[in-house]
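Hi,

I'm pasting everything inline rather than attaching a file, because the server keeps stripping attachments. The sequence lines come first, and each chain or strand is labelled.
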Amino acid sequence: MSALPSPVPRIPGDSILEARGITKKFGGLAAVDGIDLTIRRGEILGVIGPNGAGKTTFVNCMTGLEKPTAGTIVFNGQDITKTPSYRIGRLGMARTFQVVKPLRQLTVRENVATGAMFGARGSERSAAQARHEADEVLERVGLADMRGRTATELTILDLKRLELAKALAMDPQLLFLDEVMAGLNQSEIEKAMELILRVNRSGVTLFVIEHVMKAIMGISDRLTVLHYGRKIAEGNPKDIVESPAVIEAYLGERFARRAEAAGEENALIEPGTFLKAPPAPAGDTLLEVKNLVSGYGEVQILRDVSLEVKDKEIVALIGANGAGKTTLLWTISQLLKPMGGSVHFAGRDITAARSDEVVGAGVVHVPQGRRLFAGLTVRENLMQGVYLRRDTERIEQDLERIFSLLPLLKERAGQLAGRLSGGEQQMCAIGRGLMSRPRLLLIDELSLGLAPLVVDSLLDLITEINREGTTVLLVEQDVQVALEHAHRGYVLETGRIVQTGPAEELLDDPRIRQAYLGL
Amino acid sequence: MGGAELGQIFVNAVLLSGILALVALGFSLVWGIMNIVNLAHGSFIVLGAYITFFLHELLGVDPFLSIPVAMVALFTLGWGIQRGLINQVIRAPLLATFLLTFGLEILIVNLINYFFKADVRSVTTAYSGTGFTLGSVRVPYIRLGALGISLVLVALLAWYLRATRVGRAIRATGMDIDAARLTGVKVATIYAATFAIGAGMAGAAGSLLSMIVPFDPTLGGGYTQRAFAICVLGGLGNVANVVIGAAIFAFVDVFVGARLPSLSRAVTFAILVLLLILRPQGVAGKRV
Amino acid sequence: MKKAAAIAGFLALLALLVALPRLVSSYKLLTYTRFLILALMAQGWNFIGGYTGYAAFGNVAYFGIGAYTTGLLMIGKWHVPFFPALAAGALLSALVAILLGLPILRLKGHYFAIATLGVAEALSQVADTWDSVTEGSTGIDLPLKTEGEFFYYTALGFVIVGLLCTAAFSRSKLGNGCVAIREDQDAARMLGINTTLFKVIAYALSAVFAALAGGLTAYQNIHVTPGDFFKIDYTLQMIIATIIGGAGTVLGPVLGAAVFQLLSTYVWSKFLELHPTILGVIIVLFIVFLPRGLMTVLGRKRQRGERPFRMSDLLANVRAHRVT
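And the predicted assembly:
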C-alpha cells in the first residue's frame, strides 16, 4: 500500500525509532510479517487494526519482551534488536500492557516508584527519591488521592492510569500505549485523551494502539493500520479511515463494497452466493437480558445491557472491538458472574445459575477463538458436546446429521482438532455446539480470520439450522456478514446498547459506521 | 560387566518400570488435568500397602485379591479430600496447594504411624520368594505378577480416558476448563473424579509394593519424588508419556543402583535437575 | 503518636527478650532459642519465597552446608573459632546458591520447587557418602559448648539483624524489584529490572540466613549428621512459619515462627504421639483459611483505618479460591 503524505508540521524530521522488516513467527504462523515502521520524534503515532492484526506482538518485539524472528530495531541511533528488555527500559522506552499488569499487592505509590527506580533515570535516584518522584507523577495523572491504596482496590480507569503512571515514572522518550482506553466509558475516554495529549506535549513520543476510534482520531498525528501482521496503510488519519482497504479490514469485505458503490443498493450483494434468512417469525421471547452489568474483577465492561431474542430468530449483536460483545456472551453462559441485572431464558431466571445448568437449559455457546480441545480428535470434540444429554440412542443419529451438514468434518473425524485449519475448526466448534441440541445457539465471532468463501458456507449452515428451529444470537465484527443473515440487530458501544432494529434498516444506518470508525 | 549381569539388570528394570508406571500414573493425571503437584500421593500409596497388609494378616485375603479393595477405599478418600479440602484452594497461589498436600502427607503418614506403629512390615505369602530362571536371569513370580497387573491397570485407565464420557470430559477439562464448562461440564465434579482416580491408582500401586518391598509409614515420600521424576522425564499429557518416563527412570535407577549403589539417589536427582533445566518439556512430551 | 507507641512496645519486647535468660529455666530457654533459629530460617526464606515469589523447597541444603562447613572448620587440623567458621559457611552457601540459582531460577512454578527439592536430596546423599570429609552417616562432632545463653543471645542478635536487613530490603530498590518480579515478571522486566540478577541475589540471601541457622544449630547440637541436618522438616518449618506469619512482610516470619513454635511446643507437651499429625492439621487449616498469613489480619488494612479483619474474611478466602 502506498503511504499517504504526512502534513504534520509540528513534528521535526528525525526519527526516534526505526523498525525494518520486523517478523515474529509462532510455530509456522507469522503474527507480525515484515513490518517497516518509523516513529518520528515528538509525534503521536496511532495504530489500529482488527483483532489478531499483530499490534501487541509488534510492541512486544519493540520492547524486547519477545525477540523478533527477523528484522532490526534502531532506537535513537542504537541497534537494540538483541538488547534485553530491562536495558531497553533503561534506554528510555516504556510501555503499558493491554491487560493491565499492576504490581497487585503494592500500593499505587510503590507501583509508580518501581518505575522511577529502574527507568531511564533510575540510577540517579535512591529508593526514597524514587518515591518522591512517584508522587509527582501521580499528581500529573490524577491519581494522587489513591497513592496509599493497594492496586487491587482500584477501578479500571485508575488501573489504566496506574499503568500509564508506572510507564511515565520511567522517564521515557518513547512510550507505547496498548489499548489504554478499552473498557472506559465516554467521559473517561475524554479524560484519557486529554491526559495522553498532555503527556505528548511534555515531550514524550507516543505509539498508541487503540480500538476506540473516536479517541485515536482525536489524538493521532499519523495513523498506521495493521492487518494480518502487515502494514496496510499509513498517513493522515482522516485519509486513512476513508481508504477502502481500512474499511474492508474493519467492517468486512462486503461492507466495503457497499460503501464503495455509494448508494446503489443492488450493486452490493452478489446474488445467489448464500441463503437469506426467511422472514422473522413472531415467536415468544426466549432470551431476555435486563440491565446487565458485568466485567472482570475490578473492570466493568458491560454497563447496562438489555436485549431480547425471540424464539426461532437470528439476532445479530455487532459492535467494535472492546465494546463488550464477548463479555455479554460469557455472562449469559455464566462463565462470568453478573454484577447486576438479570438474564431469563424460556421464562426461567438463569441469572445465578451454574454454567452446566445453563447448558442443560439449552443455551449453548460457541466461543470466540473456537476453543476446541486441541488434543482431542474431531469426533471426540463433537462427542464432548453431548456430555449432558441423556437420550443416548439419538446421539449417533445426530452425529450423522452433523457429518452430513459438514462433510469436511467426517473426513477429518479422526484428526486432532488442533491440526485443523481455521475454517474447519469453526465448523467443528459449531458442530460441537449443535451436538448439545441447543434451543439457543450463541456464536461469538463466526467470521474472524476466515476466508470469505468459508464464511459464506458457515452462514448457509446457520440459516439452515435456524430453519430447522434453532434460535441464534450471532456476535460479529463484520457488520455485513451479521446483518445480512439476521432478522434483527443490536449495536453495542462501550458496554451499552446504542441502537436496535430490523437488520435491513441497520445495514444502511450511517451510525453503524460511526460506532466502528468513530466518524 | 558380564552378559549375565546385564541381562539381570535389564529384566529388573523391566519389572520395575511396570510398577513405577502405576506409581506415577495417578500423580501425572492429577498434575496434568488439575495442575496440582500432589505431595500426598505417597501417603495414598502407603495406605494401599496397609490395606493389603491387614487384609492378608487378619482375614487371610490373598494380596492380589485385595487390590480392588485398596483401590475403592482410596478412590473414596481421594474424592472426599478433593471436594472437602483441595477444591477450596485450587485457585490460590501455587504454594498453597503445594503446602496443603504436604500437610496432608504429614497428617496421613503420622496417623498411620500412630495407629499401626512405625514397624517395618512385609506381606509374605506361600509364593513369596519363588520364581523361575531364564538362563542365569532370575524372575520372581510376584514381580512378574505386579508387572502384569500394573500394565493391565495402565491400559484400563488409558481406555477409560479415551473411550468413556467422563474420561473424555476429564481430558477436555484439562485442555480448556472454560470450553469444558460450555459443554456442560461441572468442573468441581470432574476434578473430584480425577483426584479420586489418581488416589485409587496410588492405592493399587501401594498394594503391589507391599508384596515386593518391606515398608513402614514413610514408604511413600520417596515414591512421590519418583513419580515427579517420571512425569518430568516423560512429560505430562497422556498415559504413554508416563510409561516412557517410568521405563527411562527404571533403567537409570537399576543401572546406577548396580554401579554406584551409595549414590543412586543423588545421581538420579542430579539427572532430574539437569533435565529440568535443559528440557523442561520432558524427553517424550510436548511443552506443557 | 501511634508510631511512638509502636516503638515503645517494640523496645519493651526487646528488653524482655534480652532479660529472658534470667527469667526462665535453661530448658525453656532452649525452646526460645529454637524459636529464634526457626525465625532466622524463615527470614531467609522470606527473601526468595515471600518477596520474590519463588517457591524454594530445598533451603535445608544451605542449612546443611552451613552446619557442615562450620563444624568441619572448627574441628580437624584448622580449629577455626566459631564465628569465622560460621561466616565461612554462610559465604560458601551463598556461593553455591549463586551457582545453582543461575540455572534453576529460570524454572517456574512446580518445576522450580522440585528442582530445589532435588538439589537438597542430592546434597544430603553426598554428605552421607563422602566419608573422607563428612564421616558419612556417623556424622561429625563439634567442640562442646554448654552455655545456653550464648546460643540464645547469638540467635537473638541474628534475628534482630535479620529484621533490620528485611526492613532495609523491603524499602530498597532490590526489595522493590523482587516484589515486582513476584507480582509480574514481564511487567518487572519492562520497568527496567534485571530479573535474573535480582532473583539470584534474593536466593543467595536466603541461603546465607539458612546457613547461619545451620551453623548455630550444629554448634548447639554438637553432633552433625546428614539425617539430622538435611531433613526436609527444616525446609517445611521455615516455609510454614513464613506463610503463617505472612510471606513478604517484615515481621511475618518472626511472628509465624513464634506461633509455630508455640503451637508445636504446646501440642508436643499435650499429645506427644499425635504431634506431627496435629501439625499437619494446622498447616491444612492455615492454608485453607488464611493462605496469605496472619499479617493480613493484623497488617495493612487496620493501619490505614479501613474496616478491620472479620471472621467472615476467612470464608471469603475460601470462596475466592475454589472451583465450582
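Chain B has one domain: 3-278.

If the labels don't parse on your end, tell me and I'll reformat.
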